[in-house]
Design brief:
The structure holds two protein chains of two kinds.
Chain A: H1 5-36, H2 49-57, H3 63-79, H4 83-96, H5 101-115, H6 122-142, H7 147-160, H8 167-176, E1 184-187, E2 192-195, H9 199-215, H10 245-262, H11 275-293, E3 297-298, E4 303-305, E5 308-310, E6 313-314, H12 322-327, H13 330-343, H14 345-356, H15 358-375, H16 379-397, H17 401-404, H18 407-427, H19 441-446, H20 455-459, H21 463-468
Antiparallel strand pairs in A: 1-2, 3-6, 4-5
Helix pairs in contact in A: 2-4, 3-4, 4-5, 5-6, 5-7, 6-7, 6-8, 7-9, 9-10, 10-11, 11-14, 11-15, 15-16, 16-18
Chain B: H1 23-36, H2 45-74, H3 83-106, E1 114-115, E2 118-119, H4 120-147, H5 150-175, H6 190-222, H7 226-242, H8 246-259, H9 261-264, H10 273-306, H11 311-314, H12 320-370, H13 374-390, E3 393-397, E4 400-404, E5 410-411, E6 428-431, E7 437-446, E8 457-460, H14 464-467, H15 473-495, H16 501-537, H17 541-547, E9 552-556, E10 559-562, E11 573-580, E12 585-592, E13 599-603, E14 615-621, E15 626-630, E16 635-642, H18 644-672, H19 675-690, H20 693-700, H21 709-717, H22 730-747, H23 749-752, H24 756-759, H25 762-766, H26 773-800
Antiparallel strand pairs in B: 1-2, 3-16, 4-5, 4-7, 6-15, 7-8, 7-14, 9-13, 9-16, 10-15, 11-12, 11-14
Helix pairs in contact in B: 1-5, 2-4, 2-6, 3-4, 3-22, 5-6, 7-12, 8-10, 8-12, 10-12, 10-18, 10-19, 12-13, 12-18, 12-26, 15-16, 16-17, 18-19, 18-26, 20-22, 21-22
Classes of the chains: A mainly alpha, B alpha+beta.
Chain lengths: ~500, ~800
């Protein structure tokens, strides 16, 4: 007998309910995996509805094909210099594959570096760098356990804004940016979000966060299944591996650059800052270096000790502490020395120590004011300031032999000496025999390079204002060789 | 005869002096050649029409012969084992063998064998072609006897004549040395003439068949009645509405996507928002409409036939062409309504979002200015301005671009700095602080790419009245100049020694009339000028300004290539010089170039006065060691800022045209295929025409790397790249043979597959430029050129099909 319509419906109903019930444990299991592998959307407190819709619309399986096609298209847009469509396309890919780390890293870099470089005006460059940074930050929001993306964010703040050819202008644009969200980082010491006006501070904050995440054990590498796969040749975690010394030094580097940039016109049109503020920032830089120096690294080799093969503990800071250094085993001494040299640890630590003193800051202030006077032709003031500064600096450096003999310091100080001597010549005065750092003069005379991150050197004392309005257009007469008669023209 | 009608092939003369030929006969031969060779096309509307006719003729020939042969096989006039059927079999076997021999020869499996001076594969090919043609001829002849009409026999006779005249033309062309003598290639013989002539002959045969087909269509055309078309169209409209709910589905999807657009699409910069949104919305309209048409049109006829509802139509006095065209009308009415709705909705949407964004950004700029953040304010104001300029329909007036290099020597292109870029319109560069100049010329200018000794002139005249309207000071002054120029021209002509007395009197009268006009123009110019001076003296500058023509707007988009950074933050400067040689006026300015922005320059309109449509704009880069890059469309005079909404609808009209062609294809497929196959066919046509047309063109040019489908398959499986030479194994030879069989057939697709891409003009709309009426007309003709033949082919199939069976 054929089942009646009624029976059929009931059977179907039961099957539907049974299937739904059967789904519950599997859904729970999937949810648990999602949380484990940091693939959940709701984990971040908000659901990206656009992303959800797109994945739903493409029924999951097709999204790989679509993402592939979009990548190709993005590359095509890049070739055609259609930057805005490139960004829109890249956004679509991230909506499809928000947990695929490479897209964030690759395209974030693309925007911040490759796209920004194509634009001529610094304002436009800045806009694209900002787009790139915000893009990786979006990646961080989607992949909370990945130190890589946090590190990328920090690097863009630190390097792209701070070390570009136009960084004196870019840093100024950052300072003037109204977008507070873009200038916020989570401060681990203060345990709250803070807004800062200097990209190096942002770099510091994000570097510190990446290091902190590694210490907490965050190690997401790539896709969700990578942990279940045994690789013959596993890809190492990109950032924050246990022996990644450079990775751990970055917060200290960023803080040092911030402190150093305070003491010069590192933003076009923004006067340098000295006094307690500068001292505090140098002190903080020292703390960061010491924190880095006191991190325990393990020596690369193993040594037999008490019948067991062990790796020695290595602390970079021991290189600056002769008492402790003597107590180390030969192997530990070797690695401590080697890595301290590799990171130039002694220089950075001693530089922070030297600069954080009130004398150090006072000397820097004198140099700054002297340079300004020198550039504006006020030679009497310049001479006085340079003299005062050099004397104080000389006294101050007596306690810091490593820093005194460092090439970078020699270059900086040598420039001041060179200018002081020139000023004295202008004033018709003799160069005193007791001039401190006189030995640096010869090298400084031969060196014509200037600090590209100092607006006074690059743009002159009145730097800030001249960049906001374009320089007056050149009169026609100033145009180089007038066009020759053109045949047939 | 115009130069363009003589293809390069015919330029050179043979080494041995050919016999003399009268010019008339020579011209006739050239026309016959042009009419017969399908690979030759000349530019212009007429040329396009002719090429179209040639293709139609070939399609008609294949269709006509094909239908008779199919009937012959069905009715068992051929294919029953008589002697001539062995000819057909021979041809069938010989064709692949010929290709195999050819491939084996190129792969050096066998040496080159010639029999009586003809290479073996060619000989086999001729035999195969002759055998196949004979067999087909016999089939057609035997079928036309009992089933055809007298006129069909006449067509056969015409075809024979066509073939004969083709061969005749080919032989004559060889005889009179009209083929170029390529050095190193053996001289053309009469045999080559016959082979080439046969190719021409096929086209002539096609013409004969096309005439027959046209006669049949004309008869049908005269019996078409509007009311029956209307009735069928209405039924189609109801059907698509009721059965499929198609318009509603499409509308709802459109609304849904629109509601969530901002989830998927966040423009990075305000300046580009309009472009992104317009691009996305038109893409959405296009996708939805084409998807709807693709699904609706091929299904309807097959289902009607299957469900036998077609009886109710075909038993009535309805022409078959009406069945086809009525359906198309119905679908197009639906598409029209949807296009109008989509247009309205998306325009409202754009108005709300983009105009809202402009207001928002402008408010932000205002606020930044009030807060003293001038740089940011400038940046924001610039963004809003750029966005606004894209939400318009700009009418650019472009000149012809040529270059002077850094030594002042003229060139068609500037320096290639090696930047990767889109090759559609590559930019080339000029060096800063050197005489290197980019020159945009207006007026009658030589094409910079034409050879200097045989320049092709381009018409790049400026319509001055567009910029200097009558009734303004400059307009009237310009009128004075123009009339003076006309008088001078008349007087010059009169002074020529060969002018006839009648013409001289005529010229006198013209001059007199012009002089009267001149006085009037002068008077009105002076009146306006003095009025303006009075107003200015009275301090009413605004009113005085209104008497002048509005300033001339020049828009420029250059890119910058820096070899050094220079002083950071300092822009690269360009020098612009506008020269009006006719009136001797000049304008000069220096401006900073902003890369990827539209740099705008307002110029006093006076520079155009008296230019008679000719102008020269020079751009130099002023910053030493830096380069400025430009292409022709990077600098233009802005004639008009048209209405964006209207322009948007013009963009949608392009989509409408796509839908029309697709409807024709869909209905055509439905006439002889079951609905799933018809659906797939229509989708294939759409994909081939929309996404793969460029590939198809590469295909016909044999420019596809890595060989045909079978060779590519081998490369795919063996992980071989596209470039490497494959070892001539048996598999490779078989694959290449198969490719050689398939490729010619596939490459013919390019003639049949509609070029959907070219109908789409939405990019122009998104970039904020007006869609030219001439382009729209050309696109409409193109769409019709596809839609008509498809629908008529559908008619013939439906006519010969036993729908009631």
């Amino acid at each position: 007998m054929r089942p009646s319509n009624q029976t059929k419906k009931m059977v179907y109903g039961i099957v539907i309910v049974a299937l739904l019930v059967a789904m519950v444990p599997s859904a729970a299991r999937v949810n648990q995996i999602k949380v484990e592998k940091d693939l959940g959307e709701a984990a971040i407190g908000q659901i990206d509805s656009g992303s959800f819709m797109m994945k739903l619309f493409l029924l999951g399986g097709f999204r790989g094909i679509v993402a592939n096609y979009l990548w190709l298209q993005a590359e095509e847009y890049k070739r055609d210099h259609d930057w805005d469509r490139l960004k829109a396309t890249v956004d679509l890919i991230t909506k499809l594959q928000p947990h695929f780390l490479s897209i964030w890293t690759f395209q974030g870099w693309n925007l911040a570096y490759n796209v920004s470089v194509e634009w001529d005006a610094p304002d436009d460059k800045y806009e694209w760098i900002k787009q790139g940074i915000k893009f990786v930050q979006e990646g961080v929001r989607n992949n909370q356990h990945s130190p890589d993306l946090i590190w990328d964010t920090a690097w863009f703040y630190y390097h792209k804004l701070g070390f570009a050819d136009e960084s004196i202008i870019l840093r100024r644009l950052f300072r003037d940016d109204e977008d507070e969200d873009f200038k916020t980082y989570y401060d681990l010491d203060e345990k709250r979000d803070v807004v800062r006006n200097d990209n190096f501070q942002l770099g510091y904050g994000w570097f510190a966060r990446a290091v902190n995440l590694v210490d907490e054990g965050g190690t997401r590498l790539g896709g969700g299944t990578s942990t279940d796969v045994t690789y013959i040749d596993p890809t190492p975690q990109r950032k924050g591996r246990p022996d990644d010394i450079a990775f751990r030094s970055m917060p200290a580097h960023a803080q040092t650059h911030y402190a150093a940039s305070l003491e010069k016109m590192s933003m076009a049109g923004v006067e340098a800052t000295f006094g307690e503020v500068a001292q505090n920032e140098w002190a903080k830089a020292l703390r960061e270096w010491e924190r880095f120096g006191q991190h325990k690294f393990l020596s690369h080799n193993v040594v037999e000790r008490d019948g067991k093969f062990v790796k020695d503990d290595v602390y970079l800071d021991d290189a600056t502490n002769p008492e402790k250094f003597k107590t180390l085993t030969e192997n530990a001494q070797y690695w401590t020395n080697r890595w301290a040299d590799q990171m130039n640890y002694r220089y950075w630590k001693e530089r922070s120590q030297a600069e954080m003193t009130s004398e150090g800051v006072a000397a820097r202030q004198s140099f700054y004011e002297g340079t300004k006077a020198y550039k504006t032709g006020d030679f009497a003031v310049a001479a006085a300031k340079f003299k005062e500064g050099l004397d104080v600096w000389n006294e101050n450096l007596k306690g810091f032999p490593t820093y005194r003999e460092d090439d970078l310091n020699k270059k900086d100080t040598g420039l001041v000496v060179k200018r002081y001597v020139r000023v004295l010549r202008q004033l018709g005065e003799e160069v005193p025999e007791t001039l401190p750092f006189k030995d640096l003069l010869a090298a400084a005379e031969a060196d014509n390079t200037v600090d590209p991150f100092d607006a006074i050197e690059m743009l002159g004392v009145g730097a800030g204002e001249s960049t906001s309005t374009p320089p007056p257009s050149q009169p026609r007469a100033a145009a180089p060789p007038a066009p020759q008669p053109q045949p047939g023209g | 005869m115009p130069a363009f009608l003589i293809p390069p092939l015919l330029w050179a003369q043979a080494a041995t002096t050919p016999p003399e030929i009268s010019p008339a006969a020579r011209n006739a031969l050239i026309w016959l050649y042009l009419g017969g060779d399908t690979t030759v096309a000349f530019p212009g509307l007429l040329g396009a029409l002719w090429t179209w006719t040639k293709i139609l003729a070939l399609v008609a020939l294949v269709g006509w012969v094909g239908s008779w042969v199919v009937t012959a096989v069905k009715e068992r006039y051929v294919g029953v084992g008589r002697w001539y059927d062995y000819l057909g079999l021979l041809a069938l076997a010989l064709i692949p063998l010929t290709v195999l021999a050819q491939v084996m020869q190129t792969e050096k499996w066998i040496g080159a064998v010639s029999i009586a001076g003809t290479p073996l594969p060619s000989l086999m090919g001729y035999v195969a072609a002759t055998a196949l043609a004979l067999w087909a001829l016999i089939g057609v002849w035997k079928t036309i006897g009992p089933r055809g009409r007298a006129v069909d026999k006449l067509v056969l006779v015409g075809m024979a004549l066509g073939m004969a005249s083709g061969v005749g033309v080919g032989v004559a062309m060889v005889r009179f040395g009209m083929f170029g003598q390529v050095p190193g290639v053996p001289e053309m013989t009469w045999r080559d003439g016959v082979v080439y002539g046969a190719r021409l002959g096929v086209t002539y045969m096609g013409y004969v068949v096309l005439a027959r087909v046209l006669a049949m269509v004309l008869g049908e055309l005269f019996s078409i009645r509007a009311r029956r078309l209307y009735a069928i169209g209405r039924v189609t409209l109801y059907e698509s509405n009721r059965k499929m709910w198609a318009p509603w589905v499409v509308l709802i999807v459109f609304g849904m996507v629109l509601a969530f657009t901002h989830w998927f699409l966040q423009p990075p910069r305000a300046a580009e928002m309009g472009r992104l949104y317009v691009g996305t919305l038109t893409l959405l309209c296009s996708l939805l409409l084409t998807a709807m048409v693709t699904i609706l049109t091929p299904i309807s006829l097959p289902t009607d036939i299957q469900q036998q509802t077609i009886y109710t139509v075909v038993t009535k006095p309805v022409r078959r062409l009406e069945v086809i065209w009525g359906r198309m009308l119905g679908y197009m009415a639906l598409v029209t309504v949807l296009v109008a709705l989509f247009g309205g909705i998306s325009l409202t949407y754009l108005w709300r979002t983009v105009m809202g964004e402009i207001t928002r950004v402008e408010a932000m700029a205002e606020k930044a200015r009030a807060d003293g953040r001038d740089r940011e304010a400038d940046q924001l104001a610039e963004q809003a301005d750029q966005l606004r300029s894209r939400m318009a329909a700009r009418v650019p007036v472009t000149g012809s671009l040529s270059f002077l290099d850094s030594k002042g020597t003229p060139h068609a292109m500037g320096i290639d700095v090696g930047q990767e870029q889109s090759m559609k319109e590559p930019r080339s560069h000029i060096e800063g602080a050197t005489p290197a100049t980019a020159i945009w010329r207006y007026g009658a200018v030589p094409d910079p790419f034409s050879p200097p000794n045989r320049p092709v002139m381009l018409d790049r005249h400026i319509d001055v009245s567009q910029f200097l309207p009558a009734g303004t000071i400059e307009g009237e002054e310009n009128r004075v100049f123009e009339i003076q120029a006309q008088i001078a021209a008349a007087e010059q002509e009169k002074a020529r020694p060969d002018v006839t007395p009648a013409r001289a009197t005529q010229l006198d009268a013209t001059a007199a009339r012009l002089k009267a006009d001149l006085d009037k123009a002068k008077a009105s110019f002076e009146a306006l000028s003095s009025r303006a001076a009075e107003l200015e003296a009275a301090g009413k500058e605004d009113e005085a300004e209104a008497l002048h023509a509005s300033p001339l707007k020049i828009e420029m988009t250059f890119n910058i290539y820096r070899t050094t950074k220079g002083e950071v933050g300092k822009p690269v400067y360009a020098d612009i010089e506008i020269t009006n040689d006719a009136a001797g006026s000049k304008f000069q300015d220096v401006f900073p170039v902003r890369e990827y922005y539209t740099n705008r320059l307002l110029v006093q309109p006076h520079v155009l006065v008296g230019c008679l449509g000719s102008l020269r704009i020079d751009i130099r880069c002023m910053s030493p060691t830096q380069y400025l890059g430009m292409a022709e469309s990077d600098l233009y005079l802005l004639a008009d800022n048209g209405d964006f909404g209207w322009n948007y609808m013009k963009g949608l009209f392009g989509i409408w045209l796509q839908a029309m062609v697709l409807t024709a294809v869909g209905v055509f497929a439905g006439t002889f295929l079951s609905w799933p196959v018809a659906l797939l066919t229509t989708i294939a046509f759409f994909i081939a025409g929309q996404l793969a047309f460029g590939f198809l063109i590469d295909f016909t040019r044999q420019a596809v790397l890595g060989g045909g489908p079978f060779e590519s398959l081998i490369r795919l499986v063996t992980h071989d790249n596209q470039m490497s030479e494959l070892a001539p194994t048996a598999g490779v030879v078989v694959a290449k043979t198969l490719d050689s069989l398939v490729m010619p057939i596939m490459s013919m697709l390019v003639y049949i597959v509609p070029n959907f891409q070219v109908l789409d003009v939405t990019n122009t709309v998104a970039d904020g430029f007006a869609v030219d009426w001439r382009l729209m007309l050309a696109n409409t003709l193109l769409a019709l050129a596809y839609a008509l033949p498809f629908s008529i082919a559908g008619y013939f199939i439906l006519k010969n099909r036993e729908v009631a069976a």
